[in-house]
């Protein structure tokens, strides 16, 4: 990959996908279910090309499956499919990417642990946000798809049909949907307060949270959630077992979102399995939470209960976190 310019990287369960400036994708890591999409189940210790012959826009990596998006809005899926998370109408694992959501122009894809969310534009009416629709598929045992049920889906079902949804975040077993006017809705598992509604009661129909704020981005970890407001404030909720909320303790979970990074303007953030990353408007990176394997990048293996500065010699513009 030395001859290519990297423009993006995404990480999931135990695999990673890299995007180059000319629209090529490379993947590496665990491949036990074919989640790399290279036609094999061979774990790759160096990146291998995938989706050759397509100009790619991005990818999203779940626990054991990967979703691929071309520059023309076509969606492809590979890997584990036991819950129907690939969205091809089956529960058959795929080692070679199969096209899904045909008949739609897909604007974005978000892969949760074992479920997937598609933002699509109907090919019958392509006028961007006005006709943008949201579909979800896969594991739904905790209501994380937000269709009012707890039945797994192998074919995508439409959700949030009454709202203009512009973005979504999918976690371990919960999902957050964001609307064009800055409303945040959460659904799914909630035993750690990860939905941010002040309770530990799970939801199968999305419920509005952080209603007093204009939310522009959300990031969902396995059991915690981050919300970014239009004025650069970050709110966190859910499990804090490793200090991943960055609020100075590793005690009880938090059920109602609280502000982290107070006094700083944040422009990007990411929730991993049990760690958290934030990028400020000054391009400084801060990290908190589980650090057993050095995932925070602070030179130690100690958990951090407050957000500490990392990558201090670099100006960073964005972050991504895997599990």
In short:
This protein has 323 residues and is mostly beta strands.
Question: What would you say this structure looks like, in words?
Answer:
- With 323 residues, the protein is mostly beta strands.
- The protein has a 4-stranded antiparallel beta sheet with strand order 1-2-3-4, with no helix packed on it. Strands 5-6-7-8 form a 4-stranded antiparallel beta sheet, with no helix packed on it.
- It is globular and about 45 Å long.
- 50% of the residues are buried.
| CA gyration radius, whole angstroms | 18 Å
Alpha carbon gap, first and last residue: 24 Å
Helix/strand-derived class?
mainly beta
**Poorly predicted ranges (pLDDT <50, ≥5 residues)?**
125-129
Strand order across the largest sheet: 1-2-3-4
Strand-and-helix sequence, N→C? Answer: EEEEEEEEEEEEEEEEEEEEEEEE
Largest sheet: 4 strands, antiparallel
> What share of the residues lie within helices?
under 10%
What attributes does this structure have?
four-stranded antiparallel β-sheet, 323 residues, globular, mainly beta, single chain
SSE layout:
Elements: E1 6-11, E2 15-20, E3 25-29, E4 44-50, E5 56-61, E6 65-70, E7 75-79, E8 94-100, E9 104-111, E10 115-122, E11 132-138, E12 153-159, E13 165-170, E14 174-179, E15 184-188, E16 203-209, E17 215-220, E18 224-229, E19 234-238, E20 254-260, E21 266-271, E22 275-280, E23 285-289, E24 304-310
Antiparallel strand pairs: 1-2, 2-3, 3-4, 5-6, 6-7, 7-8, 9-10, 10-11, 11-12, 13-14, 14-15, 15-16, 17-18, 18-19, 19-20, 21-22, 22-23, 23-24
């Amino acid at each position: 990959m030395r001859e290519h310019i990297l423009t993006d990287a995404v990480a999931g369960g135990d695999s990673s996908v890299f995007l180059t400036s000319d629209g090529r994708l490379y993947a590496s890591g665990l491949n036990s279910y074919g989640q790399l999409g290279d036609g094999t189940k061979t774990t790759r210790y160096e990146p291998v090309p995938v989706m050759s012959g397509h100009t790619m826009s991005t990818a999203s990596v779940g626990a054991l499956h990967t979703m691929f998006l071309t520059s023309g809005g076509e969606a492809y899926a590979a890997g584990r499919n036991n819950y129907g998370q690939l969205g091809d109408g089956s529960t058959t694992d795929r080692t070679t990417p199969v096209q899904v959501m045909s008949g739609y122009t897909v604007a974005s894809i978000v892969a949760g642990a074992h479920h997937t969310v598609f933002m699509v534009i109907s090919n019958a009416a392509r006028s961007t946000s006005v006709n943008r629709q949201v579909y979800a598929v896969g594991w739904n045992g905790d209501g994380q798809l937000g269709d009012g049920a707890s039945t797994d889906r192998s074919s995508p079902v439409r959700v949030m049909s009454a709202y203009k949804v512009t973005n979504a975040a999918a976690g371990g077993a919960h999902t957050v949907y964001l609307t064009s006017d800055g409303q945040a809705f959460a659904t799914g598992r909630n035993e750690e307060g990860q939905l941010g509604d002040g309770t530990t009661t799970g939801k199968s129909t999305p419920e509005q949270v952080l209603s007093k704020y204009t939310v522009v981005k959300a990031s969902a970890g396995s059991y915690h959630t981050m919300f970014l407001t239009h004025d650069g404030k970050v709110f966190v909720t859910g499990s804090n077992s490793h200090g991943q909320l960055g609020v100075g303790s590793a005690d009880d979970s938090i059920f109602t979102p609280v502000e982290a990074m107070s006094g700083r303007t944040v422009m990007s953030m990411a929730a991993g399995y049990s760690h958290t990353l934030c990028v400020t408007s000054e391009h400084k990176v801060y990290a908190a939470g589980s650090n057993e394997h050095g995932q925070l990048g602070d030179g130690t293996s100690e958990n951090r209960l407050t957000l500490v500065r990392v990558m201090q010699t670099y100006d960073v513009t964005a972050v991504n976190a895997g599990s």
